[in-house]
Amino acid sequence: MNLCVCLVILSFNSVKSRSISEKNAIPKRTFDEKNKEHWRQQAQWTLRAKLAKPQNTKVAKNVILFLGDGMSITTLAATRVYLGRKYGFTGEEVKLSFESFPHTGLAKTYCVDSNVADSACSGTAYLTGVKANSGTVGLSGIVKRGDCEGQRDTANTVTGLVDWAQKSGKATGIVTTTRVTHATPAAAYAHSADRKWEADTDLPKHGLRCDDIASQLVRGGVGSRIDVVLGGGRKNFLPRSEKDSRGKPAGYRRDKNNLIREWLLSKESLGQTPKYVYNKKDLLNLDTKYNSVLGLFSYDHMPYHLEANEDDPSLSDMTRKAIEILSRNSNGYFLFVEGGRIDTAHHETKARKALDETAEFAKAVEAALRLVNTEDTLVVVTSDHSHTMTYSGYSERGSDILGFGTKINASDELPYTTLSYANGPGYRPHQDFKRANVMLDDLSSLNFTYPALVPIVRETHGGEDVAVFATGPWSHLFSGNYEQNFIPHAIAYAACLGTGLTVCS
C-alpha cells in the first residue's frame, strides 16, 4: 500500500514536480532557505509556470468534483505540515496534490437562512446551483427544515449536475467515506426537507409521509440512474429483520424492504449488469462486465483511515474503481467524490484524524490525476464549509503540528497546542481559574480531543469562505470570489450540461 502520493515538492533544478512518494530521490533539505536566491528562484519558477500555462477552452468530456467535507483553509495548511513531517521535511514548504492546480478561487458558503452552512444546504448549492435552507437537501429556499408537505411539492425540487449529466448521456457516480445517504452525497440525487430522513425509521411517525433518502437513491428519477455508488451506510438499505453473520440486525429500516435487492432487480430490468459489493477485495476484483455497481462497505460511516482494516477500501481505492467503470461510457462521465470524515473528526475536535483524512483525500485526488487526461477532464476540488480549528502560536519550523504551539507558556503559565478549536468537546473545566494542563494528556492518541474555548458536545462549522482548486477545460472560470452555487453552473458551462449557458451554445 502506497503511504502517500499526495505531496508535491517543487524542484527548481527541473521544471517538473515530484511526488513525495519519490522520497528516496529527493534530498531531505532540497534548498537553502537562508539564501535569498532560493526565494527569488521559487517566485520566478512560479511566475514562469503560470505564464506558460495556456487557457484550456475545450469541452470537458469528463468532470470529477472532489469535496473535502469541512476542509477549511486552516485544515489544508496544517495537513501540509502533518505530511511533510512524515517524510523528513519541515512541512510548510510542500503542497497537497491539488494545491498545484493552475486556478484557485474562494466560495462563499452561507445558506438562505443561516450565515454558517451545514452540509445539506451547501451540498445543494454546489451540486444543483441553488442555495437552500439549512438542513434541507435538493429543495429551494421556500422549504423549511422538516416541511414534509413542501418536500412533496415538486415545484420546490431542484436537480443539478448528476441529473444534467445523465440527460446528456454521461455515466454518473458517487463516492464517499460517509453513509451514501448522508447530507453531502444525498444532495446529488435526493429531495428531502430534513437531512436526517435517511431511512424510513428516521421519518416522523405522524403526519404526511415523505420518501426517505435511501429509497430515493434506489427509486428516484436521478438516484436510480446513477451507475456507481460507493461508500458506507448499509443499515439504511436493509430491514431490521435481516441479521448479519453475528446474528445482529443487518439493517435499520422499519419497513421490510431490502433496498439492495431492489436496486439489483431494478438495474437488471433496465438491461444493465449490476453488482453489489461490501468489502475491499470484491471491489478491487470486480469483473469488467459489470457496468453498474453499488458498494456499501460498512453499517454506518466508513471507519477513519487510521482505524481501518484490510476489508475497508480507501478513498483512493474507491475513486480509482469508479473512474475505471465510468470511463467505459463513450460520452464521458460525472463523478462526485467526498472525503467526508474530515468533517466528523473536526466535530469531535480530533485534529489528528482530521489531518489524516485530509491527507487521504489528497491521495484520492492524486490517484484520479494519474488516470485522467486534464486536456478533456475538468477536475474541481473544494469544500462545503469550514470548521473552528485554529492554527496559532510561534512554534519553530519543523515542530510537530499536533504538538505545542511555542516554548513560551501563556500568561497563565500553562502550555497550549498549536491547533485548537473555538468550541467543542475538547473544552476542559477550569481549575482554580486556570486552564487544564495539556502536558498531562497524551497528544499522540488518535482520540485526543484538542482544546476548545466553548463547551459543546459537538464542535460547530465555521462561516468563512472555502478554497476552490481547478484544472482542465475552463478551469480559469473558478478564479476569484463567488457564491458557492456558482460552481455547478461553471462546471455545466465547461461540460455542456443543463439548460443554462454552455460553451456548446
Folded structure, characterized:
The protein has 505 residues and is an alpha/beta fold. The protein is built from 13 helices and 18 strands. Strand 1 and strand 2 (17-19) form a beta hairpin. Helix 7 runs parallel beside helix 8 and helix 11 runs antiparallel to helix 12 (351-369).
Give the structure's gist in a few sentences.
By secondary structure, this protein is of the alpha/beta class.
Number of strands: 18
Low-pLDDT segments, ≥5 res? 1-6, 9-29
Strand order, biggest sheet?
Answer: 8-9-7-6-10-3-11-17-5-18
Overall pLDDT, averaged? Answer: 91
The structure class reads alpha/beta
- Helical content band: 25-40%
Described by strand count, sense and barrel closure, the largest sheet is: 10 strands, mixed
Radius of gyration of CA atoms, rounded to a whole number: 23 Å
Number of helices: 13
As a percent range, the share of strand residues is: 15-25%
Identify the overall geometry.
globular
In angstroms, what separates the terminal alpha carbons? 45 Å
